[in-house]
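== Polypeptide entry ==
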Amino acid sequence: MDTFLTTHGITLFFYDEISVHSEFHKYGLVECKEIQEPKITSENKPPEIFYYIICQKVPA
């Protein structure tokens, strides 16, 4: 997992699909969906890949 601190003080986390499952299964991972942004890409710049992660609270 790589991180990046933005100028606004927000920490961005960079995961691959294996890391998402490894990090979030203990939090009740329900769904992990790959999203590409922007939907319409320019010719010389590939889209960014993000993960839409849904977790469900697990009983203690």
Residues 2-55 form one domain. The chain has a mean pLDDT of 89. The chain is about 15% helix and 40% strand.
